Amino acid sequence: xxxxxxxxxxxSDELPEAVVARQGRVSIVWLIPLVALAIxxxxxxxxxSGQGPTISIAFKSAAGLQAGKTKVKFKDVDVGTVTTIEVxxxxxxxxxxxxxxxxxxxxxxxxxxxxxxxxxxxxSRVTGLETLLSGAYIAIDPATEGTAERDFVxxxxxxxxxxxxxxxxxxLRSAALGSLNIGSPVYHRDIQVGxxxxxxxxxxxxxxxxxxxxxxxxxxLVRTTSRFWNVSGVEVRLSAEGVAVDTQSLLALMIGGxxxxxxxxxxxxxxxxxxxxxxxxxxxxxxxxxxxxxxxxYLLYFSGSxxxxxxxxxxxxxxxxxxxVLDVELKLDLQDFAFRIxxxxxxxxxxxxxxxxxxxxxxxxxxxxxVQQGLRGQLKSGNLLTGALYVDLxxxxxxxxxxxxxEGDYRVVPTVAAPLDAVATKANQFLDTLLALPLEAxxxxxxxxxxxxxxxxxxxxxxxxxxxxxxxxxQVGETASSYRGLTPRIEEALRQTQESLxxxxxxxxxxxxxxxxxxVLLRELSAAARSIRAMxxxxxxxxxxxxxxxxxxx
Length: 554
Hints:
By secondary structure, the protein is α+β, with helices and mostly antiparallel strands. It contains eleven helices and 27 strands. The chain folds into five domains: about 50-155, no CATH class; about 165-285, no CATH class; about 295-355 and about 360-430, no CATH class; about 440-500; about 510-554, no CATH class. Strands 19, 20, 21, 22, 23, 24, 25, 26 and 27 form a nine-stranded mixed beta sheet that branches. A hairpin with a 4-residue loop joins strand 22 (about 330-335) and strand 23.
C-alpha cells in the first residue's frame, strides 16, 4: 500500500481540508474471491464432466427399491444409484431413474437388460440369497451392439444367462410346450449342458418356439444333424423283451427336460450356428427314427368299425412299419346308403429294400403286382388294453381278385374285413341259418315231449315201481348184512380148499408114480381108440362083415 503526499499551506484561521488521492493499482484483496470462484467453477466442471448418464427403467413394482440408497450393480460392482422412483403415467407400474457412473453410456444399448435382484426360489434353482443382508439391487446385463438407449423396460425375472457368458442360443420347434418351463435342463449323455431360457407361441398359434442355451464348450457338440427330444416324465415301453422304464432324472420329472445327441450313422455336419432351429421330438425313439424324403399316399376303404384307429397309427407290412395314418373320415354312399370309411395312409417305399435289378419297374407297377398276388389292407388290434388299431398290409391268397383303382389324387388299395368283423359276419350267418329253421314246430315237439315226460314221471305206476325198488334195495342191504357174519367161515373153507389142492398137486405131480401110470394108461387108451376107429371105418365100408366075417381077399 502507498503513502499519501501532503501539500503545505499558509496558516490561517480556517479549518484545513483534506485532499484524497486515488490509488493507481488494483488491490490484492480482490484476488481471494476470484480464486474461490475459479476453484468452484473447476469443481463444478469436474463434477459435471465426471457424471455418468441418467437412465429410466420401467418395472411393474418397486418392491425393495429406495431412492438414494438402492444401487445399480454389475458383477457386484456399483455402477450407479437410484435417484427417484415415480408411478408411471398409465398406473401400470413404476419408473425408476438411476444415475450411472461415467463411461457407462458405452454399454447402454437396445439389448441391455435390467432386473431387480432379490431372493428367488424355483424348482430349478435358488438365486439372490445374498440380498437377504445387503438388500435388493438393480442388476445390469450390458450390451455392446445396437443403437444407444436411455429408456428401458426391466425384466420381472433374472435371465438364465448373460451376454458375457460364452455359449450358443438355439431354437426348438414343437407342437406343444408340454411340461417344459424356463430353467428346464438340457442333457447330453445324461449330463446337463444347458437349459431352457424362454418360449413363445408362433404367429397364428401353429406351434411353440422354445429357446435354449447351451453353455461353452458343450455348444460345440450341437451339429446341424443333431436330434432333440423331450425327456420329461417317465417313458414306459412294452416289447417282446418285457417292460422297459426310462427316465432322465428327478429334476426332469418335476420341471421337464430336453435331451440331444447326434446319430452316429449320419454325417454330423458343421457346428450349429447361433439361432439355428431344430425340431423337438416327443421321445428318443422318434428322434432316432429314420426319415425318408420319398413318400406315397394311398386310400383304403373299410366298412366296419374303426374305433381305436387314430391319426399317426402305424402302417405295417409283414410286421415292419412302413408308414402312418394321415386321416380318417366317414362317408355315406347315396347309391346304396352304406357307410364307407376312407383311411388315408402315407407309405415310405424306401423302407423296403430291393434285391436284384429293378430296371425300369416303377413303384406303381410293383404295388399293382403285389395286389394281384393278394396284398390287402386290414385293420388289426395293436394293444388289447387300449384297443388301438393299426393298418396291416399282408397277403391274403383266398381274397377275391382285385386291382389298384384311383380316386382323385390317390390310388385305392383293396382291403379285407378285420378278424373281428369276419367273426361277426360268420356269427350273423349262423344266426340267419338258425332263424331259418322251423323253430315253432321244434318248440311244439319239445313241449309235447316235456309234457309226456312229466305225465310219465307223475304216473302212479312209476311211483309204485320206485317204492318197490326202494324195498328191494332195503332187503338187499339186510341180506348183505347177514352174509357179513359168514365171512370168517368162508375164509376158513377157502384155506382148507387151498391145502387140498396143494396135496392133490403133490399126488399128481409130473414126478409122481401116479403121473407115470396115468401117461401109460393114456397111451393104451389112445391105441385102443385108434383100433376102434379102424374097425369102425372097415364096418362102414363092409357092413356085411358083421354076418359073414372078414374074407381072406379083403
